[in-house]
Each structure stands twice: as structure tokens, then as C-alpha cells.
């Protein structure tokens, strides 16, 4: 009997300890800290709120809790004219950490001027943050960062898909804006990578279903946005990126290598549109003479041999390019930032073993955020911060986000769009980003509200010190220029 009692007592005690120490996220919480930083030489006081806010189902029951970090300048009392920027990263399945502690927020990573990690890990003040001109909230979608599903019975398709992601996040943003009394504020969405798909759909969903209107959308390294282009166009459009990368690695003929990148690329873009794409579309009907001429020029611009271009029928896969460009030097190049180099176990093969850019970035971001969120923001939890969370399978069907964004712009004369791209980004290349804009404004009627900016870096252009300053300034000016004067009607003349 005594043995049984001890066992029962042990089970009860163990259960109690387990219940007390079980890792979970509070459905609603908020931790506020106050800070001061210097931006462009001027002191900016602000408060940071690190917390969680629920996602509800149609019956008002919490089904998930999203972690967010909200930065508000505290020396401005009139919020009606104070812009609000709502920031997302991509993946899908990526937390908001990337732009949060490396781009627009008040702190940035301790990294070198080219974006490589340094020790000791940590953050430092961001002298170029846009917090001087706008309040910013960074949002982690379900299963990213500290955000979690709290109702285990809920269907995962509620969250994990292009359109379901947009729908529940629109509801969440509506609640956040309402709670913060920011309906009067000029509002902006910014997204990076898959986050551009997210914000393109969100601006339309919020406008059409919540009657919330925005002044601007900022896309950093955009995806295809559901815009139809077909394999010949999509693959051909990579050539300007190949050319920029080959130029960076000094793999081109001196006649091109000695030109400035900005002078050289328009020539490659013109060739891509006017010669390469028409040739690829012809397929097997292309004459041998035409094929040879296109391959010769492709080789000149890409740094690859004419022979491998002909072997691939003028369509060079990105994986092959990352492996092939510096193969003779025993090196591979990065997918997300092709300035970064790595090496594989073997020089053979048609694709690199890993992306040296992403490996370097994970190394820099993960430890630094863990320190920052706990020590600077005072947010305590035993949960793992998911840089990349479990969100699969992801339903990619019925994507129309790029076209939806175009519709939203035509319906809202206040709405502006800016795209930022890195020339050396092979994951979401700059020329396909330009192609997006041509299709979003196929009629050519919104050119005064659409802009594109290029930077001499990769997917996260802001990791390069020079581009951190210029890209933030581009956002700052975009916000300032898309503000409207009091009592200016939203109408077309």
C-alpha cells in the first residue's frame, strides 16, 4: 500500500510541476518598455510594446495568438497624421525578425558592413530607422516567432494558405488598428519576399472587406505575386540578374566589366525583352544561326560558356548558375545574395549543396534576437522563437495577389506602391520584380504612383551598410511623398 501511495503521490506531484512548467503563449499580453535613440542625428524617444493579440473564430473564440512588437514615438501626441507601418516577412513560415532587427526598426544586428555575422552577438542602435517618420508594428503570423495555434481542434487550413493567411491576418490587423485608435492615421504595409504576396493580398482584403484604406505598400524583394508569365518568360527574365552577379564576381569580358553596373544592365534588359524571350518562345523552330547568335550574346552577358547555354536550350536554371559561374574556382555562390561564396563537398553536380548567404544570416539573427527580446524588450517566455515555423502544407492555389493589388490601386487614388530589389538576389530577382510592375499597371495609368529601387546587394539589401542607409531613406521619402494634404479629395481628375 505504501508503495502505491508513493507512486500516486509522485504522479500527482509530477503532473503539477508539468502543468506549471508547460510551455505556452498567453493569448493576450503586453510588456511596455521605454527607450531613446538617435535617427539622422536627432533624438527620438519611443516606447516598445512586445505582446500577443488573439485570432478569433467566427464565434469569438480565440484560436491562435500572434506575437507582435510595436514601436511608437512618444513625443508626438497627434496620431491622426502620424503614419503607421505594418510589417511582415515571408517564407511562408518566416517570422518578422529579419526586417525588425536589421532594417526599419530602432535597432540593427551587430554585423560587418557586408552583412556577415560578428561576435559578440547582439544589436546596436539603427541611425537610419524610419521610426522618426512612422510608428511600426512587426507581426509574426501563426507558428512563426512566438505565435502559436491555441485551439488544437482548429483546421490548419484556416491559417496555412495564400488566401486563408490573408483573411485571418486582415481580421487581426483590423483589431490591432482599432485597439490602438489608429483608423485616422495614414497607413502602410511593408512585406519582404513571400511577405510581398501577403501585403499585396492584405491591402485588397482590408480595403474590400474591412473598409480600411492605405496610403502605401512597400515590397522588398517581391515574389511573382501570382502574375502569369510562363516558363520561357520567367526563366529568361533571370538573365539581367545573372549579368549583375557575373559583373560582381568579375567574370565578364573587359568590355562589359569596365562599365558601371547601372550603365551595363539596361543593355542586358533590352536584349532579354527584345531578343532572348522571342527566341526562346520559338523553341525548336529557331534556326541554328539564330540560336548560335543568341547563345553567343547570352554567354557574353552571363559569364557562362556558350556550350552550356546551348545544352540548356537557352534556358539556364538558377541552381545551375549558382553552381556553374565559379565552378572553375571551386566555389559556389549564394541564392539569396550572390555576393556570398561557399564550397561544396564535390565540384561536380548541377546545384549547390547549400546557400552560403542564408547560412550566414541565420548565424547572425537567431542569437541576437534571443538576447534583444528578453533583455531589451523584457518579453519572457520558454517558447522557441521560430525563425522558420511549421506551416506546411501551404495551399498555393488561386493566387491573384498582384492583380488584386492593381485593382486596389485603381479603386484608391491615395494608394502608392514602391518595390525594392537587390541586384544580386537570385531568389526573387530584380528583373522579374520589374515585370510585376508592368503587369500590375498594364494600362500604364499609375506610373506616378509606382516606383522601383535597385541596390547593389541581395535579398536583404539592408544587410549591406551602404544600402541600409539608402533603402531606409527611400522608404522615408516614399512615406513623406505619399502623404496627402488635408482635405485633398481622393478622386481622379
From TrEMBL:
Query: Annotated Gene Ontology MF terms?
Result: serine-type carboxypeptidase activity
A biological process term (GO) from this entry: proteolysis
Cited SUPFAM superfamilies = alpha/beta-Hydrolases
**Any one Pfam family match given in the protein's UniProt record, by short name:** Peptidase_S10
Question: Per UniProt, which keywords does this protein have?
Answer: Carboxypeptidase, Glycoprotein, Hydrolase, Protease, Signal
Recorded hits in InterPro entries, A to Z, give: AB_hydrolase_fold (IPR029058), Peptidase_S10 (IPR001563)
| Residues in the signal sequence | 1-19
This chain belongs to the protein called Carboxypeptidase C (Cathepsin A)
